[in-house]
Design goal:
Order of helices and strands: HHH
Radius of gyration: 22 Å
Shape: elongated
Number of strands: 0
Structural class: mainly alpha
Strand content: under 5%
Number of helices: 3
Helix content: over 70%
Length: 131
């Protein structure tokens, strides 16, 4: 029978990495759902514009930029997919750090996530105010 080697990783650190990884997966799922909702909002606006054009008989200038939501939704879903794929790399890199007894911070991923969410929020705000 093969003897199992004892892990060098403290269980508390392992559980913390697993919680962070689970949170990143949850964020990726949230981005994918948000992108889907934003993209389907474009479909909703198309249906509303057809209804309003039929009653008013003219094009509605407020609905001229409907395609923006389609592209924005696709971009958000794409970012969620990239984040989901990145999460596995994040997890394996942290396990390697813990096996070597190193602690490192990964400020880049959190900066990129916060920057992406801020840009999406800004674009949605601009679309509500200007378009």
């Amino acid at each position: 029978m093969k003897k199992r080697e004892k892990s060098k990783i403290d269980p508390k650190n392992l559980m913390a990495v697993e919680r962070a990884t689970t949170a990143l997966i949850g964020t990726a799922i949230s981005l994918i759902v948000l992108g889907f909702v934003v993209e389907k909002f474009e479909l909703f606006l198309n249906i509303i514009s057809f209804e309003l054009e039929g009653k008013a008989g003219a094009k509605m200038p407020q609905l001229a930029h409907i395609a923006f939501y389609n592209y924005l939704g696709i971009a958000i879903v794409g970012a969620g997919i990239v984040l989901a794929l990145f999460t596995y790399r994040y997890y394996t890199r942290w396990i390697e750090h813990l096996e070597r007894g190193e602690l490192d911070t990964d400020k880049k991923i959190y900066f990129l996530l916060s920057l992406f969410v801020a840009v999406i929020g800004f674009l949605l705000l601009i679309s509500m105010v200007m378009l």
